[in-house]
Amino acid sequence: MKKIIALVLAVTLCSAVFSGCGGDPKKVVKVYNAAEYIAEGVIEEFEKETGYKVVYSEFASNEDMYTKIKTTSYDVLVPSDYMIDKLVKEDLIQPLNYDNIPNYQYIDETFKSPYYDENDQYSVPYMWSTVGILYDGDKVTDEVDDMSIMWNEKYSGKIFMLDSVRDTMGMTLKKLGFSVNTENDSELAQAKEELLKQRPLILGYVTDEVKDKIISGEGYLGLVYSGEAGKAMEEKDSLKYAIPNNGTIYCVDAMVVPKSAENKDGAEAFINFMQRPDIAARNAQETCYGITNTQGRDQLPDEVKNNKGLYPDNDVLERSEMLQSEGNINQKYLEIWNEITASH
């Protein structure tokens, strides 16, 4: 999903592993995940229990990840739904041996056989989220129930949007009553004009900084992922999270193994460990993203699993869409996005 948030970081636990560290490469697992998307101590626990060493790197967006994997080898990737679809079609990821991932049995049926992996061959769902509006209830006096609030001149200079082409474009299309996956030139042109009109009102396009800027009071409203909203609300009581009435983008991030992986066995061991119910629960609770593991969800505190912002009712999801990457959709959106971001 997302996510899909932050500057590229790298935590190297085996020095110079990309150029050869002198040890057995089969004892190293190279993981490429979105920023702030794993609980503290989980990697160290995996290393202690399995004997593998993890080289853990973080990416800012699915698009950054896609570019990076063309030149760098990883064993585990954690892309979003639409990017997995693209990776499958381009033959960049390989089928998994689910015999090595027995904890797959705990995956909620809701997340199995998705459009991007209909036969459950390539991926194991990690977490899920929605896109919505984080706002300060002490500062925003209007009802926050649809995307039009993000164009309200009353809050000019206090609005942040996501620096994510598909999410920001998608939520704008949703505001206009269109599909988040439209390839219709007229609909895309309308979304472009809508975002150009908004430019003078916003402070900028940012990623995981949105929550920090709303917490600090620099902004009053921000388009965010539900996990980021959950973290922010834990820090400031006046903050609230709203999903637009006409629906939102519903995201699933999953673990996959690229064709270029040097340690598939280690990759599958890591994926299996992440779906151990207690580990899945720790990851979900600390990151505030939605859990895909049924037994893990049972271990979450009631105030977490009953939070409708993080776990919305089915009727909300029925009005929502997952991002897809059919045809030339990504290129079309990027061309428009470049025009929008260059206009400021």
Automatic annotation (TrEMBL):
Primary location recorded for the protein, binned into one broad class: periplasm
Compartments it resides in: Periplasm
**Signal sequence range:** 1-19
Tell whether Nucleotide-binding is among the UniProt keywords. Answer: no
Alphabetized, the UniProt keywords read: Periplasm, Signal, Transport
GO MF term set: polyamine binding
What is any one of the record's Gene Ontology cellular component terms? periplasmic space
Q: Which GO terms describe its biological process?
A: polyamine transport
Decide whether keyword Transport is in the record: yes
Which sites bind spermidine?
A: 36, 82
Q: Per its UniProt record, what InterPro entries does this chain match?
A: SBP, Sperm_putr-bd
The name this protein carries in UniProt is: Spermidine/putrescine ABC transporter substrate-binding protein
Q: Tell me the organism.
A: Congzhengia minquanensis
